[in-house]
Amino acid sequence: MPKRYTPNDELSQKAKAEGYRARSVYKLKELDEKFNLIKPGMTVLDLGAAPGSWLQYAKEKVGPKGKVIGVDLQEIEPIEGIETIKADITEPTLLTLPTIPKSIDLILSDLAPSTSGVKDVDQWRSIELNQAVEKIAEQALKPGGVCVMKVFRGADFDDFLRSLKTKWETVKTAQVKASRDRSREIYILIAN
Ligand SMILES: C[S@@+](CC[C@H](N)C(=O)[O-])C[C@H]1O[C@@H](n2cnc3c(N)ncnc32)[C@H](O)[C@@H]1O
Fold it and tell me: Is the entire prediction scored with pTM above 0.85?
């Protein structure tokens, strides 16, 4: 049977050729090009960071004076110059860990919940994860800092977006070409 052509497969090959651990690096690249997120010297916290392509990209962009920390439930293979933490981001004690900086320029989240197969349940889990991300942003972002999080669109998406708009001065949404499921996956940027 002939192999079905999916244009996104090219991104997996491109990531491999360019030394990135996952094709999702091109999602961050698009977001960075759109919003000018990552600058030299920044402190960046990446939530849901395994296998680590966003960490690799962020490290390149912040340069030697910057700091990048990655958190995931899964072990992240070491990357030179990057602190990685195996932890659940919904644990309220996360920010008390000494390796997590207290003042962060940019929080990134590409978190994806483990899927149950039930669309509404999975979408709600994505919202729950992002409520935890928002709490972390409230507590750890520097004034003027930015947080970008991935959300799966579904029944609760509009309510979540509305609630963000009541608390954050800037709330923007973006879809990226590199998403496999572009209609469902949305990135939200919040900043004060
Ligand atoms: C799509 S992957 C991230 C890919 C990453 N941006 C990259 O480019 O390599 C989503 C990650 O979220 C992590 N994750 C899901 N729930 C989590 C939680 N509660 N705490 C920490 N990590 C979580 C998963 O383990 C998974 O590695």
Answer: yes
